[in-house]
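Question (not urgent): is this output format expected?
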Amino acid sequence: ESPIAVREAPRREANLEGQLNVSQIRVLLVDDSDDFLDVVSEWLTADPGIAIVGTARTGCEAVARVEELEPDVVLMDVTMPGMNGFEATRSIKSKPDSPLVVLLAFHDSETARHAAWAAGADDLMAKANVTAGLLTLVRDLAAGRQPAAQVAGEKKRSIRVSKPLTKQGPSREI
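Got this back:
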């Protein structure tokens, strides 16, 4: 196994107003490439607002790790052996209080985006754009905001924000 810097981060608890502590966004990284996990983990952990709470290398492992670790956000590769990212996303999103899921693909095409949304993903990003836009995307989704790409004029769509980091109840449409 690769030496990913996994940080202990407390699970979120609501205050009296129902707001969750958002000092750190708890992230689960899922990819079958150790090199990609190492690079993304190193890059994300440089931000004190992000805690990598675990990794998984398959879709099946991701589903189990989500239940075990209760991350706020899952960053998951689309193409993995066995259960792929779309299937794992469907399984993760079928449960109550599911985390936000951002699928990572080699190409960001309209077809890939529609497949991601159909699986219940909160967004899709090309792996080539990870260092340029991933932190902003994760923070926007965690705050319940529309991704910048959508606001900037990409085809309007309804995204599921399953868990803006507040206690507002189940999924809502934006």
